[in-house]
Write a structure and sequence with these properties.
By secondary structure, the protein is α/β, with parallel strands linked by helices. The protein folds into two domains: 46-242, 3-Layer(aba) Sandwich (Rossmann fold), CATH 3.40.50.300; 313-529. The protein is built from 15 helices and nine strands. It has helices spanning 4-24, 30-41, 58-66, 111-114, 153-160, 183-193, 211-229, 244-293, 297-308, 314-341, 344-359, 366-392, 398-426, 466-527, 533-547, and strands spanning 46-52, 83-87, 92-97, 102-105, 126-133, 142-146, 170-176, 199-204, 235-237. Strands 4-3-5-2-6-1-7-8-9 form a nine-stranded mixed sheet, sandwiched between helices. Helix 7 links the parallel strand 8 (199-204) and strand 9 (235-237). Helix 2 (30-41) runs antiparallel to helix 8. The relative contact order is 0.13. The protein binds guanosine-5'-triphosphate and magnesium ion. Residues 58-59, 78-79, 146 line the site of magnesium ion (MG).
């Protein structure tokens, strides 16, 4: 938790802002208030990911930390999906799928989702399992992340975990102490360094070594890391069989507590900055309301006209934003098609070669052969197209990025013009509400290959003795690949187009919303502030007081 006094002060400042908004019908600060309220109330979590080769003892280590055999462990690769453990007053487990579905499950049935034996190859499409348990209270604020063997999941993890403070997380690389540092581990370390500087090594299964051997192993690791990576990493020993408590204590004082302290500092700075900018905006609005409240009625109307003038016309603004969105959306499909074209020839060649090789061993009549071919094609195309989709989709986002930039520019110029008018007419330099339109990345489409053949001539299999016709049909199957590749790349393109254009539309709605709220707020401030001079003055005073030390200028 961040500093209690600072949190109380932030709450007080928020209360004044909320009261001001209620009195003066300020709608444009709503989002910012929500963000700050959320930050003030929540305890942010730091992710500590346990990574490493299969069977390094990652899950066993976590079980030992929490003092309970909760995560599945075993002698063959076990953990198949990412599992996050954090403190919660009541025990619960929630499974989230890649489709975004969340289901609560009984904690005893965890292995049905996280173990390779009961969820082979993650057939259940689980993105992550989140577990809350009361016994993690001493680690409150940390979220311990168990990962499947090998490190590549870390990339996935960093991409998908909540991104507000990703850099605070740490990585624990588990390596079995009875094995030397492998090339794989070094490669993983190099990879990890791109994501977080906070990496420690955990030499597991220390019980397999004598105290003297342990020292030797630690020295060997130090030397190798210094030579290979020119880096010094903290190294911890661990065993879930002997001296658990002393191993645990060292980790706690030298790693976990330090992480928590870091997080508090970082979190405090973010909250301070956000509260500062929110109270500044609120004060500008109160200033505007105060000036306007002191005017006679007819002057107030004139003021409104001078400040909003042409800009007050929301319909024109809406139309302009629609034009901006459309200008990008119409190019989305062409851009993706053009980009995907580069994969077509190679993909066709690769599939054709693979089919030639695999088909040689197929047996049966035409009907059986066709079934086999259908399955083969579906399986291989789905894998290939999904791989392209997962690896390349960031390249499809051109129009989304451009739409985002053009809407931000539009908002900026709207804001600049409005600010200039307010300064000219009222002499107030306005601190506008924080505006940030957020891009919601479209989720990955499901690739579905439906029809393989237009005409089921395979039903007439009895007409074609295979020893005569087989070469003919093989050729036909091979030729079909080219068309299947074209059709399915195009389908992929269409699915991404839909997602991306939906995201552009979402940007447009956000931008319109910002402007609508700002205009409504100013309209309310100027038209309805009559006779509220005293109340406004009191709020300004409260705001000054509440800002106190707690909202010194942020970073
Ligand atoms: N002697 C000894 N064996 C351990 C220790 N920790 C784990 N093991 C054994 O190592 C094997 C692998 O343990 P897991 O915890 O499943 O390893 P993991 O890294 O989670 O494996 P994956 O999930 O498959 O990547 C099991 O047979 C454990 O009993 C330890 O401290 N000492
Ligand atoms: Mg495991």
């Amino acid at each position: 938790m961040c500093d209690q006094a600072f949190q109380a002060q932030s709450r007080k400042a928020l209360d004044v802002v909320v009261a001001s908004c209620r009195l003066l019908k300020i709608t444009s600060l709503k989002r910012q208030i929500e963000v700050c309220q959320d930050l003030v109330e929540r305890t942010p979590l730091i992710d500590v990911a346990i990574l490493g080769q299969f069977k390094a003892g990652k899950s066993s280590f976590l079980n030992s930390l929490i003092g309970r055999r909760l995560l599945p462990v075993g002698v063959i690769p076990v953990t198949t999906v990412i599992t996050r453990l954090s403190y919660g007053p009541v025990e619960r487990a929630v499974v989230s799928t890649f489709e975004g579905e969340r289901t609560e499950i009984p904690i005893e049935r965890l292995d049905e989702y996280t173990s390779e034996a009961k969820n082979p190859g993650n057939a259940k499409n689980v993105a992550v399992v989140d577990i809350e348990i009361p016994s993690l209270e001493e680690y409150a604020g940390l979220r311990l992340v168990d990962t499947p063997g090998l490190g590549s999941v870390f990339k996935y993890h960093m991409e998908t975990s909540e991104n507000w403070l990703p850099e605070v997380g740490a990585a624990i690389l588990a390596i079995s102490a009875d094995r030397p540092l492998s090339e794989h581990d070094l490669a993983l370390l190099r990879d990890l360094l791109r994501y977080t500087p906070r990496i420690v090594l955990l030499l597991t299964k220390a019980d397999l070594l004598t105290p003297h051997q342990r020292e030797e192993v630690v020295a060997f690791f130090r030397d190798t890391l210094e030579r290979e990576l020119k880096r010094d990493f903290p190294i911890f020993l661990y065993s879930d069989r002997v001296d658990q408590e002393s191993f645990k204590r060292r980790l706690e004082t030298e790693l976990f507590l330090k992480l928590a302290a870091n997080r508090d500092g970082e979190f405090g700075r973010i909250l301070q900055y956000k509260i500062h900018s929110l109270t500044e905006s609120c004060r500008s609005y109160l200033d505007i309301a105060l000036k306007s409240s002191l005017q006679a009625d007819q002057d107030r109307q004139a003021l409104k006209q001078q400040i909003l003038g042409e800009m007050g016309n929301l319909t024109t603004i809406q139309e302009e934003l629609i034009t901006l969105a459309r200008a990008q959306a119409i190019h989305t499909r062409t851009n993706i098609d053009k980009y995907l074209e580069r994969f077509r020839p190679d993909l066709t060649k690769r599939l054709t070669a693979a089919l030639k090789e695999d088909m040689a061993s197929w047996q049966g009549n035409l009907w059986q052969l066709t079934r086999r071919y259908g399955e083969w094609l579906r399986e291989n195309l789905i894998t290939e197209i999904n791989t392209i989709s997962a690896r390349e989709h960031k390249h499809f986002f051109g129009t989304l990025i451009k739409a985002h930039a053009s809407m931000e520019r539009y908002l900026e110029s709207f804001r600049a013009l409005l600010g200039a008018n307010i300064e000219r007419v009222l002499g107030i330099k306005m601190v506008p509400a924080e505006w940030k339109i957020e891009v919601n990345e479209p989720s990955r489409p499901d690739i579905l290959i439906t029809r393989i053949f237009d005409f089921h001539f395979d039903l007439l299999w009895f007409l074609f003795p295979m020893f005569i016709f087989r070469p003919f049909f093989e050729r036909h199957f091979l030729n079909l690949i080219q068309r299947q590749v074209v059709v399915n790349l195009s389908r992929l393109s269409a699915q991404w187009e839909m997602g991306i254009n939906r995201a552009i539309e979402d940007l447009r709605k956000q931008a319109t919303g910002y402007i609508r709220d700002e205009l409504a707020t100013l309209d309310a401030l100027i038209s309805q502030s009559r006779g509220q001079t005293e109340a406004i003055r009191a709020l300004l005073k409260d705001l000054e007081e509440a800002r106190g030390d707690g909202t010194r200028k942020g970073p």
